[in-house]
Structure formats: structure tokens, C-alpha cells
Amino acid sequence: MIKNIPLSALIGLIFTGAYFFVAIAAPLIAPYGMAEVVGDVWEPASSKHLLGTDNIGRDLLTRMIYGGRTTIFIAAAATLLSFLTGTSLGLLAAVLGGWADQALSRTVDLIMSIPSLILALVILAIVPVTVPILILVMGLLDATRPYRLSRSVAVDINVMDYVEAAKLRGEGRAWIIFREILPNALSPLVAEFGLRFIFMVLFISTLSFLGLGVQPPLADWGGIVKENKDGIVYGIGAALYPAVAIATLAISVNLVADWVLNRTTSLKGGRG
Amino acid sequence: MHPIIKLVSQRLALGLLLLFGASALIFGLTEALPGDAAQAVLGQSATPEALANLREEMGLNRPALTRYFEWLGGIVQGDLGQSLTNKLDIAESIGKRLGNTLFLACVAAIVSVPLAIFLGLLAVRYRNRWPDKLISAITLTTVSIPEFLIGYVVIYYVSVKLGWFSSLAMINDSMSFGQKLNAIALPAFVLTLVVLAQMMRMTRAAILNLMQSAYIETAELKGLSTFQVIARHAFPNAISPIVNVVMLNLAYLVVGVVVVEVVFVYPGMGQYLVDAVTKRDVPVVLACGVVFAAVYIGLNMVADIVSILANPRLRHPK
């Protein structure tokens, strides 16, 4: 199985792995300190500063590495939170059915009827903007999607013969959810996890760009754009490096997610 | 009653219900979360006495439910209240900006919708050959970059390097229509890129799905050319899924506008909302939130109604 990974998925895996490695090992790799001013404003790329310097003379490569760390950490934490809440509520709704299912599903419909960026902005106008709050807001607002996916997959599985058999055996609700339904619902959920992670990366970058996400002096990819955007009209491309970083990360995760989805659908005779 | 009238009116009622729910959700969020408008005005270091006085003055001491219905009643009559920071009437400020935003969104839609449908059909026609692969590679890239970065990449290459168009989209009433179009060329282009990819991908999927039906096979077997099959047999049946795709993306466009306006410093709703959030101007945030939600819910409702109307089985019941 591992032997015949298609080339595209392999490339995706290598790049995704590299980004996570850099994020985890940021303090070891970065050539300078995160908030250390080491040169002039917007110095061009040189052997001392591989990507040049930013709007107040910090090393841009260092900012990008630390920025990746912040962005990836927040996105990963928010995705985990959204999947934990979304999937557990979704599976619960599918198993319980009836009123509980109706109440949960209609609430989710209501939340999804408002764009999540707008809801996030409304919330961030009231609460102080800190990293834990950002993770909480993004994770909970986006839990609606894993909820819908896991519920729809679980409703199908819930009427399978083996689940019926387990119920007749007298297994409890926890067994049904964790031992019968979850293993069979896992593969579409894993592929969705990758896509939601990318969405979170875009989401946190957008919020930071608007000045409502990660606050300075902490670096993150959206913030780097905000800090350096004034250079663009003078032809200084410092603000565009995050575009390259975000796009390559997003494409590699997409390639991996595509492969997971294809592999699992072909294994199970086309069931999505 | 004709079943189609029943279905459409049901959908309209559901839309109104959702709108009501959305307003309650937005208002409820600002109530339930720690901190309120008085806190936002005075900041974290305010004394409890000053807070209590201001709350009294702003009427925040009354029950939340009363204030919600007053607020809702105001909205229905076109009164959105006053801004906390500059005491201006919100409805007036929004009116002008909403016009600007809709103008930008409409121009983007007029360009992107036909283009997306055409490219989607092209991708189906040359499925799995190079035009299809090229189109999907480009779409994968554009969906992987956030809107604001596409904006800056466009500014960097088109506005700064090539010197075409200004990087700021200033707009005012004294400009002629042509000047306005020229001013919003870049933001409209960015918005087009943002929605084009999604719309094209979804159109392609919807048509491919149709192409696998039995009547398409029959049309092919009777010797029609591929293009005729698409134009005569696939397209009429694809109207409903395509309208759905278009409406979903227009709804998405309304959100994308928020970020793109900030990039191009365009005086629209998005800029207004983001400014208000930064200044913690709660009444303005509430009003903008409701307007955005209403447009979004409205577009989704239109999508559903059009797909009901496009269904011949519902139009001509037995």
C-alpha cells in the first residue's frame, strides 16, 4: 500500500512534512531572533538576509519561519477543535435521531446561513483578540462542516446489518459510536480534515491581515502581508512571500487529501 | 393550489425565518459574550461607576429581549441606530457604501458568471485532455491563495510593474460611469479570479454528472456531435444545478468583497465593517452583520427558488 504512492501524493507528503518540520523546529532553523531588528528597512535579498528584511528591518526569512509556526499551529489547533466538537456531535445526532438530531441540525443550518467570516468579525468586535480565543472562535464556527459530514456518513452506516447486530448483542451507545461507526466513517473524515486545515490557514491569515488575528510582535503569514503591504507600490515584493508559502502548503495538503480520498473510495467499491 | 406556488412560498417563509434567526443569533452573540458596547467605548481600564453610568445612558440596563425587539423593529423601519464613535446615522452611512459594494460585486459577477460557465463547458468538452488539466491546475492554485494575497499579487504585477490601473480604488459621486469602471477594474478582476475557480469547478462537476445519464448516451448514439449533445440535451437540464452554483458563488463573492475592499481601500460595506470591528463600534458591527447575512440568505433563497422553477416535473404536475 505504501509502496505505490502516486508521485503527486508523494510530493504533497514531502512538502507538508517539510512545512510541519520547519514549524516545529523554528527556533533552531531561523537565522535570527523573531523580533530582532538586524538591518535597514526593506533591504533586498543578500547572502546575509536570504529574503531581505521587512518594514522595520527584521530578517524576513526568520519572520516567515516563525510566521509559519504561528499560522500552522493556530490552524491545526482550530481544525482539531472543530473536528472533535463537530464529529462527536454529528455521530451523536445520527445515533440518537429524533428531537436531538433535529435540534442540532437546525442550529447548524442557522449558523451556516451566515458567512463564517462575518460571524467571526461580529464576535471579535466584542471579545479581546488573543490566540486561545482565535482558536476557539475559528474552531467552533467551523465545527458545522465536520458535523454535517460525519452525521450524513453515520446515518448511512447506522442502518447497516453489522450495526444492527451490535445493537441486538446489547452493546452500549459508546460501543456503537466508537467501535462500529467511527472506524467506517474515518476515511472521508481524514480527507476532509486536510481540506478544513487549509481553510483554517486561509481564515487565520485573512483575520491577521485585517488586523483582527494574531497581534504583533508575534509573526504570522497574514500579519507579514499587513506589515509589508506599503512596500508593494514601491515595487518591494516582501508582502508576497506569504502567498508562495500559503499556496504551496495548500496545494500539497490538497494532493495528500485527494490521494486519501481516492484510495479509500477505490478500496470500498466507490462508496464515498 | 398549484404545487409550485406552495413550494416557492414555503421557501420564502423559510428564508424569512432564517433571517429572523440570523438576526437573533448575531444580537445574541453580542449579548452572551463578556463585554458590551459600554465596555467597548470606555476600554478595559474603565471604572465600574463610569461603566454603570454609560450603560444607564445607552439603555443597556433594560432586558436583552426588549432591546432586541426594539433593534429589530428599528431595522424593519430602516433605522439602524447611531454609530458609537462618530454619532452618525448608520443607515445613511450604509446606504452609500452598500451601493458601492453592490456595484463592485455586480461588475465582478457580470464578468465571472458567463466566463465560468463557458470554461466549465470547455473543460467538459475536452475532459482529461490538456485544456481541462490546465484549467483545473489554475483553479487549484487560485483556491489555495487567500483573496487579499491575490489582490496584492495583482497590484504588484499589474499596477506597479506594468503601470496599468491605480492600486487604490477611489470612487465618488462626481465620477462618470466609465471613470468608475476604470477605478474598480482591479478589485473586480481580483474578485473574478476568486469566484471563477470555484464556479467553474462546480459547473464542470454538475455537467459531468449529467453527461452520465441514459438520455445523453442515446443522443450520442444517434450520432449528434459532442457540442450539440451538450447544447441541446445537457445544458437545459443543467440550468438548475448551474444556477445553484452561480448563486452560491455570488453569496461567496459578497464575503470576498469584505477583504478585497480593504486591500484596495474601496469605500464599501466591507471596509466599514472591518473599521467598526477594529474600533469596537458594536451598533455598526451589528448592522453590517445583519446586512451581510440578509444578502447571503437572500441569494441562497433565490438559488433554491430558481431551481424549483427550472424543474419541469414541478411546473407541469400530472
Element layout with pairings:
The complex is a heterodimer of chains A (272) and B (318).
Chain A: H1 7-24, H2 26-29, H3 60-96, H4 98-112, H5 116-124, H6 131-142, H7 144-158, H8 161-168, H9 173-209, H10 221-228, H11 241-267
Helix pairs in contact in A: 1-3, 1-11, 3-4, 3-6, 3-7, 3-9, 3-10, 5-6, 7-9, 9-10, 9-11, 10-11
Chain B: H1 3-32, H2 37-42, H3 48-58, H4 64-76, H5 90-125, H6 130-143, H7 147-161, H8 177-183, H9 185-211, H10 214-221, H11 226-263, H12 269-279, H13 282-309, H14 312-315
Helix pairs in contact in B: 1-13, 5-6, 5-9, 5-11, 6-9, 7-9, 7-11, 9-11, 10-11, 11-12, 11-13, 12-13
What does this structure look like?
The complex is a heterodimer of chains A (272) and B (318). Chain A has eleven helices and no strands. Chain A has helices at residues 7-24, 26-29, 60-96, 98-112, 116-124, 131-142, 144-158, 161-168, 173-209, 221-228, 241-267. Chain A has one domain: Orthogonal Bundle (MetI-like fold). Chain A is mainly alpha-helical and 272 residues long. In chain B, helix 11 (226-263) packs antiparallel against helix 13. Chain B starts with a helix and ends with a helix. Chain B has a domain at 90-299: MetI-like fold, CATH 1.10.3720. Chain B is globular. With 318 residues, chain B is mainly alpha-helical. In chain B, 78% of the residues lie in helices and 0% in strands. The chains are: A mainly alpha (272), B mainly alpha (318).
What best-fitting shape of chain A do the alpha-carbon axes yield?
elongated
**Count of alpha and pi helical runs of chain B:** 14
The tally of helices of chain A reads 11
Find the biggest chain interface. A-B, 42 and 55 residues
Comma- or semicolon-separated keywords:
heterodimer, A: 272 residues, mainly alpha, MetI-like fold, 70% helix, 0% strand, elongated, disordered C terminus, B: 318 residues, 14 helices, globular
